[in-house]
Design brief:
The protein contains 15 helices and no strands. It has 263 residues and is an all-alpha fold. The chain folds into two domains: 126 residues, AGR C 984p-like (AGR_C_984p-like, Orthogonal Bundle), CATH 1.10.3700.10; 113 residues.
Length: 263
């Protein structure tokens, strides 16, 4: 039986509890029989994989590999996944480089099974990181079964800081964020952007994102999220806006105001 994460409430209050108990809950979740068994299987067998075809042919290995990048929904798309892996990331024409969702590029790069790539499936430290990231992702999914906004908030805790610290220009960082659906959704919500916003030209989206973030935090730069306090403030804003939206969908504006005021 898999441990079900505890999220006692929604909004900022529930987030405070989840954040405070995160390490303990993740450890308990990871040690559950199913998760422990699949992690051990992955680490014992991934070093034998020398091609994209070999990886996609083993469903248990592939489940962990995809899960580490939040791509578990592609488990049955074997040809597509094999193409992502076998193309690698070195060529501009590689499939992973042509997709807007940058998780595929990270996925392909993690295993190094494309032309000219250094194969990484035999690197123990790298594969341990993949296995751990899968456990984190599966924990986030389990949290999302109770509250999807909490899942996105958890994802942002590590992904926002990774993005802030990566090399390249601020513009490149923004485009990478826009190519990561969970992070993009969180940013849109935190900044109060409507659903139709994604229909704008990509360069116009960039301008709006930067302006709105500057209005909220005083800076349009994603590098600010190397500071945990900046991540915390954005997360709180995201959760508060999400809770308001949920309340507005179920009760009257007057009732919403009373609840938010603690009446």
């Amino acid at each position: 039986m898999t441990f079900q994460p505890v999220v006692p409430a929604g909004g900022v209050a529930g987030w405070r509890f989840l954040h405070r108990t995160y390490d303990t809950q993740l450890q308990t979740f990871s040690a559950s029989p199913v998760n422990d068994r699949e992690t051990k299987y992955f680490l014992e067998n991934i070093s034998n994989v020398k091609s994209a075809e070999e990886l996609v042919s083993d469903r248990r290995l592939l489940q962990v590999a995809l899960g580490a990048f939040g791509l578990e929904g592609d488990i049955n798309n074997r040809y597509f996944v094999q193409k992502i892996l076998s193309d690698g990331t070195r060529s501009d024409d590689a499939l992973a480089n042509r997709l807007s969702d940058k998780r595929y590029r990270e996925f392909a790069d993690a295993f190094g099974l494309g032309p000219g790539d250094v194969r990484k499936t035999g690197l123990i430290t790298n594969m341990e990181e993949v296995a751990q990231n899968n456990l984190i992702s599966q924990f986030e999914i389990s949290v999302g079964e109770t509250d999807e906004t909490m899942r996105m908030a958890l994802y942002a805790q590590h992904k926002l800081s990774d993005l802030a610290l990566q090399g390249g220009s601020e513009t490149r960082k923004w485009y990478d964020l826009m190519g990561l659906p969970p992070l993009r959704k969180m940013m849109e919500t935190a900044l109060g952007l409507p659903a139709a916003f994604s229909q704008l030209d990509i360069d116009k989206q960039l301008g709006v994102f930067r302006d709105k973030l500057s209005d909220l935090t005083g800076s349009a730069e994603l590098s600010q999220f190397s500071d945990p306090d900046a991540v915390r403030k954005l997360t709180d804003t995201f959760l508060a806006r999400s809770q308001i939206a949920q309340l507005q969908n179920t009760i009257s504006p007057g009732q919403t105001a009373l609840i938010l005021l603690g009446a």
